[in-house]
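STRUCTURE:
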């Protein structure tokens, strides 16, 4: 049973990645056919991100009431329904409307699955599962590209991914008895239930440091991905085509790094893997600064990708150990929300900053957040170690 459920979770992680990269792949064609400015993609992504942040914040109450299996099935249904709406109603206003369930569904399922895996499976599976997310994020543009050669083809791309999601929904509902048998047995006491509010969670020892580390990590990962190509073109003088290939290697570094981290997790604990990743990220950021050959900068992007690989899964898997199994789902939801805040707002914040300072500021920007991530991560490690000894 445990193996069957794990296979289902791996498939679910692929489905999590599928919708994430669709809009970026299709938008160059979509905005022309919809007769809207190219900048309107930001409106849709902000709506999706807003829904994801909100559902992550309040995911614990929903998951505690319905259970991980039902929340996963309902959330995937919401994303499938939203993508079907993108296909059936190809008008910008309707895309904004269907972006709401797309975002709300993504936040809850992400929080639910990550906490479930942290509680019931080893660290190597957390790394491999996030590697499978990368497979889904890579497959999304590939599926969309098969339909973009024809007018209105992006609609069929969304329809195809929607059908995949709905098939998964059927599988998830059929597997609900298996999910139920694996649900966490420990419940909060009545007093803890009354006090398990967001202000109480923020006040927990080490919570602020943990939230800051998630915020900083996602700021680094998404800012590098969004602005890396521009840095390579404007600062190093590469062609747009060559820069795009190197940015793809950055994402390949994250995906391949998580595959490798799954094996390393069999020999190393989460904290060691996180520190290793942070050290590699730091080396990558420094490589971007070195006034040597452009290949040092190019290597820097790959190093940042490889360094990012074990950090996020490791921090997620550490959550029950840091804060206790009884409260881990509530903390997980807030951590995911802060992660989405970092990935949503820091890349555009850097964009505004670069207009004043120039794109050359990118390595400094990344290193600031890498250092903040290291400091906050070490703070929570120290607090968790002290609580374990007390």
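SEQUENCE:
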């Amino acid at each position: 049973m445990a193996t069957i459920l794990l296979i289902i979770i791996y498939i679910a992680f692929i489905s999590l990645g599928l919708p994430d990269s669709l809009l970026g792949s299709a938008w160059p064609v979509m905005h022309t056919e919809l007769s809207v400015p190219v900048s309107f993609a930001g409106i849709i992504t902000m709506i999706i991100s807003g829904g994801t942040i909100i559902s992550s914040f309040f995911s614990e109450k929903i998951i505690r009431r319905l259970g991980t299996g039902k929340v996963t099935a309902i959330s995937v249904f919401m994303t499938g329904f939203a993508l079907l709406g993108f296909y059936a109603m190809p008008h910008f206003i309707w895309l904004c409307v269907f972006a709401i369930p797309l975002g709300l569904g993504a936040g809850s399922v992400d929080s639910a699955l990550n906490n479930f895996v942290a509680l019931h499976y080893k660290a190597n599976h957390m790394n491999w599962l996030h590697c499978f997310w990368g497979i889904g994020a890579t497959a999304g543009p590939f599926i969309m590209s098969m339909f973009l050669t024809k007018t209105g083809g992006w609609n069929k791309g969304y329809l195809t991914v929607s059908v995949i999601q709905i098939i998964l929904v059927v599988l998830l509902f059929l597997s609900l008895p298996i999910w139920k048998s694996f649900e966490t047995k420990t419940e909060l006491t009545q007093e803890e239930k009354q006090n398990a509010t967001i202000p109480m969670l923020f006040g927990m020892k080490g919570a602020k440091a943990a939230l800051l580390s998630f915020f900083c990590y996602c700021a680094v990962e998404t800012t590098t991905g969004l602005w890396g190509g521009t840095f390579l073109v404007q600062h190093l003088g590469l062609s747009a085509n060559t820069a795009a290939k190197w940015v793809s290697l950055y994402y390949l570094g994250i995906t391949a790094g998580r595959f490798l981290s799954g094996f390393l997790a069999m020999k190393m604990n989460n904290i060691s893997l996180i520190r290793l990743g942070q050290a590699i990220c730091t080396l990558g950021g420094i490589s971007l600064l070195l006034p040597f050959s452009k290949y040092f900068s190019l290597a820097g992007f790959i190093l940042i990708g490889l360094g990012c690989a074990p950090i996020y899964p490791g921090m997620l898997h550490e959550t029950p150990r840091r804060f206790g199994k009884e409260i881990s789902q509530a903390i997980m939801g807030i951590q995911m929300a802060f992660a989405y805040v970092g990935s949503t707002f820091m890349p555009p914040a850097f964009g505004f900053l670069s207009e004043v300072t120039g794109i050359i500021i990118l390595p400094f920007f990344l290193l600031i957040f890498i250092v903040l991530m290291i400091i906050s991560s070490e703070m929570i490690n120290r607090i968790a170690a002290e609580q374990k000894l007390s």
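REMARK: The chain is about 85% helix and 0% strand.
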